[in-house]
Design brief:
alpha+beta, 19% strand, single chain, 61% helix, 74 residues
């Protein structure tokens, strides 16, 4: 947890941030993972939209029903 202390001296505010140092490498890796997940989600949504436009909603419903009926791993 980081704390922000504000003190005033000669009419100026002095900000002092206390706490553990920020691990920027970890922050950038986390950001990269979030961006990758977002890209996968956008690609999946785009694929579904294109599929529905091309084949129609009925085809998508049949595909989902078939996937639900088939046992996992087969």
């Amino acid at each position: 947890m980081r704390l922000l202390n504000v003190t005033y001296s000669d009419g100026q505010a002095i900000l002092n941030l206390e706490g553990p140092p920020v691990n920027w490498a970890y922050a950038l890796e986390t950001l990269a993972i979030y961006l990758l997940v977002a890209a996968v989600i956008v690609a999946l949504v785009a694929f579904i939209v294109i599929y529905v436009k091309k084949k129609g909603v009925g085809s998508l419903k049949r595909s989902l029903e078939g996937a639900r009926r088939s046992p996992a791993g087969q």
